[in-house]
């Protein structure tokens, strides 16, 4: 009698996990739509510079290349973290998540420095339509990364406390998915904003 | 081993990382060296970005894995249609606005 009941429970638990993951994918799709709107605005307004404060004038190849490589490396290290988790190594999982958070922090640091430098050169969010759309698009991505850092730190605390179980496993998988997604969005910021900007 | 626990190996992550590095360096080099005219260059770097997107979807986010039916892939396809409509539609419709240009 007990046997079928247990397998029923496991079955339901399993479905529950699958639905949670699907729910997160649907969130990512809606987040994609937010970014699509911001990209569309940027694409329309990027020529509206009202003078010579253009991307070519303001963007620094060294700076945005560094940001791109750091975020890409952090996406890779968050992948290594989930591999360590599958092997059951709590030490390596926490280690790779720490590296990911540190890379993410340096990305946000570089971005804040870049924004502050632009503002000090007279290129602020209210200067022209191009800069309004630029700061909104890139800033929204930066906020996503900052939020991801807080989230990932929270997950690390939970792993420290509860170890690797079905629950924390799911949390690491979902925050990892979010982190990879942010790198995918950045590919298009790198290409559409920065590369087309300095072209 | 359940299929849903299969989330790639070290090899897929390293390959994905290497491909992404190449697909980041290549458009950067093309733009800095001005190897072709502006229109062609724009198309080329956008195509390279889409290629990197596909690589990261498969090598980092493992979208082909998981149980069938793969509802998340359907959600992504719907998302792609909406993203294309919003971006291409906005750019196209705004070309009719005399205030722009």
Automatic annotation (TrEMBL), chain A:
Localisation per UniProt entry: Cell membrane
Transmembrane region(s): 21-44, 64-81, 93-110, 130-151, 172-196
Record flagged with keyword Transmembrane: yes
Major subcellular location class: membrane
Heme-copper oxidase subunit III family profile domain mapped to chain residues: 1-198
Membrane topology: Multi-pass membrane protein
Keyword set includes tRNA processing: no
UniProt keyword terms in alphabetical order: Cell membrane, Electron transport, Membrane, Oxidoreductase, Transmembrane, Transmembrane helix, Transport
SUPFAM superfamilies, per database record: Cytochrome c oxidase subunit III-like (SSF81452)
Domain of life where this protein originates: Bacteria
Subunit structure: Heterooctamer of two A chains, two B chains, two C chains and two D chains.
Its biological purpose: Cytochrome bo(3) ubiquinol terminal oxidase is the component of the aerobic respiratory chain of E.coli that predominates when cells are grown at high aeration. Has proton pump activity across the membrane in addition to electron transfer, pumping 2 protons/electron.
Family designation: Belongs to the cytochrome c oxidase subunit 3 family.
Name the UniProt record assigns to this protein: Cytochrome bo(3) ubiquinol oxidase subunit 3
Source organism per UniProt: Fictibacillus fluitans
UniProtKB/TrEMBL annotation, chain B:
Compartment(s) of residence: Cell membrane
Domain of life: Bacteria
Pfam families for the chain: COX4_pro (PF03626)
Protein name, UniProt field: Cytochrome o ubiquinol oxidase subunit IV
Family statement drawn from the similarity comment of this UniProt entry: Belongs to the cytochrome c oxidase bacterial subunit 4 family.
TM regions (residue ranges): 12-32, 38-61, 73-94
Membrane topology summary: Multi-pass membrane protein
Principal cellular location given in the protein's record: membrane
Protein keywords: Cell membrane, Electron transport, Membrane, Oxidoreductase, Transmembrane, Transmembrane helix, Transport
């Amino acid at each position: 009698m007990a046997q079928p009941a247990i397998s029923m429970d496991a079955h339901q638990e399993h479905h529950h996990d699958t639905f949670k993951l699907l729910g997160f994918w649907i969130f990512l799709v809606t987040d994609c739509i937010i970014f699509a709107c911001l990209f569309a605005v940027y694409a329309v307004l990027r020529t509206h510079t009202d003078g010579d404060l253009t991307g070519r004038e303001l963007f620094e190849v060294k700076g945005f290349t560094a940001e791109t490589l750091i975020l890409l490396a952090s996406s890779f290290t968050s992948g290594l973290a989930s591999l360590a988790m599958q092997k059951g190594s709590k030490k390596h999982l926490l280690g790779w998540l720490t590296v990911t958070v540190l890379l993410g922090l340096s990305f946000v640091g570089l971005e804040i420095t870049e924004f502050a430098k632009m503002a000090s050169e007279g290129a602020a969010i209210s200067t022209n339509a191009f800069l309004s759309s630029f700061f909104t698009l890139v800033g929204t991505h930066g906020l996503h990364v900052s939020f991801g850092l807080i989230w990932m730190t929270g997950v690390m605390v939970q792993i420290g406390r509860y170890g690797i179980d079905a629950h924390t496993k799911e949390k690491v998988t979902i925050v990892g998915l979010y982190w990879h997604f942010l790198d995918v969005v950045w590919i298009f910021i790198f290409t559409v904003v920065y590369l087309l900007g300095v072209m | 081993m359940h299929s849903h626990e299969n989330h790639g190996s070290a090899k897929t992550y390293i390959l994905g990382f290497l491909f992404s590095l190449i697909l980041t360096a290549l458009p950067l080099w093309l733009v800095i060296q001005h190897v072709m005219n502006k229109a062609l260059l724009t198309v080329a770097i956008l195509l390279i970005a889409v290629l990197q997107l596909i690589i990261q979807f498969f090598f980092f986010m493992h979208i082909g894995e998981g149980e069938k039916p793969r509802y998340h892939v359907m959600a992504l396809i719907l998302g792609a249609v909406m993203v294309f409509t919003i971006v291409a539609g906005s750019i196209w419709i705004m070309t009719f606005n005399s205030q722009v240009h």
